[in-house]
Specification:
mainly beta; disordered N terminus; single chain; four-stranded antiparallel β-sheet; three-stranded antiparallel β-sheet
């Protein structure tokens, strides 16, 4: 007996986001050289954002352990100039273990 789940949208993630009040959202998607990431935190937290290929290899660290206050956040992310068109995973994680992952498409 096998159960499969087919994901039809561009957002994938971990059901438990820890300190994150809302799942991360990125726009535009497909992305160009810059994209805006939106998320909300219940408490102040050290946050990191990484960009990885679809095999999980880290391509860039876009934010590394920065202390963010509780509340809504909108962060403009500059994508690496050498980033080839394709599918990538943008992971936002906190020092206390909460995380979310969004699939992004690079034009």
């Amino acid at each position: 007996f096998v159960v499969l789940r087919y994901l039809t949208d561009l957002n994938i993630g971990v059901p438990e986001f820890g300190n994150m009040a809302l799942a991360p959202l990125i726009h535009p998607n497909p992305i160009g050289q810059v994209a805006t990431l939106e998320y909300a935190l219940n408490n102040s937290e050290r946050m990191s954002i990484t960009l990885a290929d679809m095999e999980g290899r880290t391509i860039a660290t876009l934010l590394d352990g920065v202390l963010e206050d509780a509340g809504e956040h909108r962060t403009v992310l500059g994508m690496p100039a050498t980033l080839a068109p394709g599918n990538y995973l943008l992971t936002i994680s906190s020092a206390t273990g909460g995380s979310g992952c969004v699939r992004v498409v690079k034009e």
